[in-house]
């Protein structure tokens, strides 16, 4: 009787075991998804904000240079 209960239980456990990890030499390359319109719009605003910040810093540095030159 034990064999009739134990054998199906062992078969179920063997079927539920985790698969082996993939071979590192044959790893699939990740695929980049095409950005959604929302992501594209957000990236556009983010890029514009970075550009505006860089422009403001450049102008502030130039004004500081001019002010230093005018006071000497």
From TrEMBL:
Coiled-coil region list: none
Keywords: Signal
Residues in the signal sequence: 1-17
Residue ranges of the region described as Disordered: 17-72
Domain of life: Bacteria
Composition bias type Pro residues, residue spans: 18-27
Biased composition (Low complexity): 50-72
Identification of the protein by name: Lipoprotein
Native organism: Thermomonas beijingensis
